[in-house]
Amino acid sequence: MSGYAPIAVELSRYNQWQNEKLFGVLAALPREELMRDRGMFFGGMAATLDHILMVDTHLFGYIQGVMPPPFDPKRRVETEFENLRAARIGLDARLRLACESAAPGWFDEEIVMPSGRRMPRSFWWSQLFNHATHHRSQVTSELTHMGIDYGNTDLPYNPLTQFPAP
Question: CA-CA 20 to 30 A from 21: which of 48, 86, 98, 114?
Answer without folding.
Answer: 98
